[in-house]
Design goal:
The structure holds 2 protein chains of 2 kinds.
Chain A (H helix, E strand, L loop, with lengths): L1 E7 L2 E7 L5 H8 L18 E4 L2 E4 L12 E3 L12 H8 L9 H13 L6 H7 L11 H11 L3
Parallel strand pairs in A: 1-5
Antiparallel strand pairs in A: 1-2, 3-4, 3-5
Helix pairs in contact in A: 2-5, 3-5
Chain B lengths: L19 H4 L16 E7 L5 E7 L1 H4 L4 E6 H4 L29 E2 L5 E7 L2 H8 L3 E6 L25 E9 L2 H7 L2 E12 L8 E6 L5 E5 L4 H12 L6 E4 L15 H13 L3 E4 L2 H7 L3 E12 L5 E13 L25 E10 L13 H19 L3 H8 L6 E2 L5 E2 L4 H12 L1 H14 L3 E11 L7 H6 L8 E7 L5 E5 L8 H13 L6 E4 L17 H28 L6 E4 L2 E4 L2 E7 H10 L11 E7 L8 E11 L5 E11 L6 H20 L31 E4 L16 H18 L13 H12 L1
The chains are: A alpha+beta, B alpha+beta.
Amino acid sequence: MRHVALMANGVRHELEVEPRELLVYVLRERLGLTGTNVGCDTSSCGACTVLVNGEAVKSCTMLGVQADGTEITTIEGLATNGELHAVQQAFHDHHALQCGYCTPGMVLAAVSLIDSGAATDEAAIREGLEGNLCRCTGYHNIVAAVADVAGVA
Amino acid sequence: MAVTETTGTFMGTSVRRKEDAGLLRGRTTFVDNLTLPATVFMAVVRSPYPHARITSVNLDAVRAAEGVVAAFSGADLAQDWTGGLPCAWPVTEDIKMPTHYPLAVDEARFQGDGVAVVVAESRALAKDAAELVEVDYEPLGSTADVEKALEDGAPLVHDDLGTNECYVWKLDSGDVQAAIDAADVVVTRRYFQPRLIPNAIEPRGVLAQVGPTDEVTLWSATQVPHILRFALQLVIGIPESKIRVIAPDVGGGFGSKLNVYAEEALAVTLARRLGRPVKWTEERTENYQATIHGRDVVHELTFAATSDGTITAVKSIAKCAMGAYLQLVTPGIPLLGAWIYSGPYDIPNYSVTFTGVFTHTTPTDAYRGAGRPEATYVIERTMDALARELGVDPIELRRKNFVKEFPHTMASGLTIDAGDYDACLERLLELLDVDAIKADQASRRAGGDAKQIGVGFSTYNEMCGLAPSRILGAIRYAVGGWDAATIRFQPLGSVQVVTGTSPHGQSHETTWAQIVADQLGVSVDEVEVLHGDTAVSQQGMDTYGSRSLTVGGIALYHASQKIVGKARAIVAHQLEVSEDDLEFENGAFAVKGSPDRSMDIKAAAFQAHAAHNLPDGMEPGLEETAVFDPPNFSWPSGAHAAVVEVDTETGDTRLVRYVAVDDVGTPVNPQIIDGQVHGGITQGIAAALYEEGAYDEEGNLLTTTMTTYLVPSAAELPSYETDRIETVADNPLGVKGVGETGTIAAAPAVVNAIVDALSHLGVTDVPIPATPERVWRAIEEVRS
């Protein structure tokens, strides 16, 4: 067991984790942050994407012990005082989610993409979301939502 | 057609989704998010061989391992089953129906077939322990090829059946042979549509709790809680009345969760044996091996035509892989396309034959479109082949053969209520600008460009909205096709809707509220839709086959009419007027000619509950249920076009544009319809360009993760151009299904576009998925 201290959605946590424990399971099973989903086990689908120090990371590619000292934002921590983040609101307005399983990862990947300044046009948005798979929407409305927030619609 | 008394305020508008509030905040109830006190975790040990005799299963080491609660072989649990996993669709009288227990006992028949199960105190410990199970296998001969499995001497999947032929099913009408003999042109083409893995992004998961007197609660990532409840009684012998199935938030299905799976029965039986809740979450590789696949069909399709392009006959002969066992509706999947091999065309002579074939592979079953993409693919590809043979424009050939008048009874015997195929095609052509595309194509060809462009069409119709129960009975489906709705006014005027449909992305919480709000004259915000829990929704037939709106939605309409009828009687009684003297508009009953004498429906609801002054003999309360059995299928249609750019040096194909015009009847929520179309199209495009569940000849699955099975991302796809034509379906809301249209239409449009791009080189076909290698080989073949 290793001692890990991290901030998740503004709350400080100290816990003992197994060295083999993936960050996504630390979040889901130890911290109760079940908004982050697991979809593939091979780091292909991006459903488990969270922000680590502000950058999108697939939380199945990172060990819990590597999160020591980091600040993590999951989908539960994205809204402020109950107000949806602009990307969440745009997903709602553009009907960019159906079953909602890929949505937490997709939203956080989009937040990171927009914040990095890389969402410059439709092609860049599509390239930027390449690591996040959605089976319901065909991405059309996701791309529209992200373009709307990025101001490239 | 019935006419509603209230004017629509919400029907036809893009009301934003109620579902999003939780889904966007990560406040979700997907099964893997749920745990109960004392939950233990199940891992399934699966056969690495496509076919092997199980000579021994040694569980000594695993039972001694850390955290292990129990471990069982298939033989250990054999006594628990009162029946095998059910197949509800024995399509012929003499169909071969192998028994399918949740764990294999003597023989594993596909890679991924469960052979043992381990239960431990945590997910990780269960997985660790599963590695310690020692199974001795004696590998046996196997085949994954649907045609080779029918050859003499092919390894048999089920020795006791004596054959791999599961069934032969035929539908004939008119005289196809005479039409072929008399035809000026006969075109026959062969197609293989490979396996597709549905890939709901949420894998399957179950959590089972069993009380001391066998009260079962099963949370499952399922599309079909009601069917699952029914099936569990058959498999585990506990009466349905003691079984509660809950489908909480479910992360997509696409048919893959329209089933009754081994792990559902296993979790229940283990929870019963151990007295602790049992949880299992599927891993993606398990999903690829042990959740059903779609397609895997070889077709030979023939069109006969006169020299002026009139199609006189269609004949289809198909071999359809069942996999190693028959899951819930495996044998019936081809039949879901069997009546539409004439497509949207008027073809008088008709013959369809399906041979179901066992292979040493994961069972096939419903994947989005189920039978209709298979049919539409071969029809629309062969329409282009026929156009080339006749030397006519493929658009003209389609137009010439379209059904023009409705209702139209097809040669296959079913009747299409409404449509306007020409209008869909005309609107598509307006959006597309074929002349500009053809000019670009001509200039690239003249310039000898490496990158060539092509446009392909797919005009389709489909039958969905499963289904009229009498027809289902006639084609040997075991249960009915009706659905149920209950509407309940609470005393203070809010409305609960209980639906027998079970959404997993389809947005029923929003659209059902729209329908009911309009019928009752209340706000969409005052209507709560309850679903997915058999303790709340006692009866229903769940969600698949684009059935929810045209069956469950019409049940809502009828329940609404009953509510309005009872409220009207209460108001008439209290205002001392005749019911006929009341008009109902915008949620209020007013006396004709005296609009100041009125009572709104919420006040009537309160009066119904107070019961101080009801008509003699009326029961208190304002709650009504309707069960609706549709008289016909639903018949969406449309015209789609794809524009592709093909690199003739590398074979790389890029989809440049995709334009879809669909007729899905009167829209409930246009934004949600567009979403369904976008998603459906994408799965069709994926089948055309990217996805293939590949086996080697023996039945070893080669595509075992998302790194080798290519679910497309946003980067591979363009934005889509969509529009609608509205013809009014023959039901009280005028609605048609929409969930599968895009998937049915898209694959042939894309492949026709590739062939069009390469037609000047002499290419007439490309196998799917049209990977760069396959496109490159198709070019090289005609060059050499």
